[in-house]
Amino acid sequence: MNNKKIVCLGGGIGTVNLIKGLKEYTDNITVIVSMADDGGSAGRLRRFYGVPPPGDLVSCIAAMSRVDPLMRELLTYRFSGNRYGSDRSLPGHKLGNLILVALTSLTGDFNKAVAEMQKIYNTSGKILPSAIENVSIWATTTSGDKVYREENIDLGKFTGKIEKLFLKPSNPTTPEEAKKAILEADVVIAGPGDLYTTIIPVLLVPDIQKTLKQSLAKKFFVVNVANKLFETPDYTINDYINAIVKHCNSRIFDYFFVNNNHALKIPKKFNRQYDYVDTNHVSKDHKYKIVEKDLIDDSFPLYHSSQKLAKAVIEAL
């Protein structure tokens, strides 16, 4: 077992796939999760009960839990029905989200509830929110529009391309434990995950950005296997690099991990929404280390393979 201290930034399905692989190598994983989610079950509970969004925290707890597999499945069980339905209805909710809301009521504090849930589900490592308060995101676009809410950005309800992302409030409070984890880390990994709705919302939190710049850890960025065509249309590796620099006023990450296996066809159901990230036109005038490997999940080629990605990360340490 490798004892390197690893911090992962994000929280969505990309982060879940990453930590499923990494936990085979180390128990020293801290996941710092975006608190900008306001869609689906998490968004409905956020609005109805006034709690931070539980969804990504719950997914990461399930991924790192060491309890019986059936208990883990219960956390991610989703009641049948529309996940974007009425805020007052049960259909479409994820059971783990409801449990975290119930724990918040019992403990009187969302962050205590997250900690208690990790004890109950015996997680390896730690899962922490990136901000203590509820945060929202909004963006300006190349067409001059402003688009509000994570859900609207995620679903492409805007014209033009995303130009700049913003947090509201702009300076939320970061848990001390999250800052400490970044400073003590051997490596910090951002991604994979939706660039503007999962990854950059974590990087925009001022204390996280400041601490990242102070940290002596190696800093890895995992580029998505495929672009979501209305969020990162036709993005190349350079576009991902430039987006990070624009939003952080710094390069932050020195290593960019890129999947170079494009032999598999994107499933027909998704090929109008996604396209492989172009890896053929990487600018040579930067000083970044581009790690190109076959990182794809052969059974579902929109995602990274947990095993391939974790192995690549560990080999680069």
Task: Summarize the structure in words.
The protein is α/β, with parallel strands linked by helices. It has a single domain, classed as CofD-like domains (Rossmann fold, 3-Layer(aba) Sandwich). Helix content is 37%, strand content 17%. It has a 7-stranded parallel sheet, sandwiched between helices. α3 packs antiparallel against α4 and α8 packs parallel to α10. The chain is globular. The mean pLDDT is 94.
CATH architecture, please? 3-Layer(aba) Sandwich
Number of domains: 1
| Rg calculated over all Cα atoms | 18 Å
Q: What's the overall average pLDDT, rounded?
A: 94
Molecular shape? globular
Helix content: 25-40%
The CATH first-level class comes to Alpha Beta
Descriptive key words:
317 residues; Rossmann fold; 7-stranded parallel β-sheet; 12 helices; 17% strand
Element layout with pairings:
Elements: E1 6-10, H1 13-22, E2 29-33, H2 40-49, H3 55-64, H4 69-76, H5 95-107, H6 110-120, E3 126-129, E4 136-141, E5 146-148, H7 150-154, E6 162-168, H8 176-184, E7 187-190, H9 195-203, H10 206-214, E8 218-222, E9 226-228, H11 237-248, E10 255-259, E11 274-276, E12 289-293, H12 306-316
Parallel strand pairs: 1-2, 1-7, 2-3, 7-8, 8-10, 10-12
Antiparallel strand pairs: 4-5, 4-6, 9-11
Helix pairs in contact: 1-3, 1-12, 3-4, 5-6, 8-10
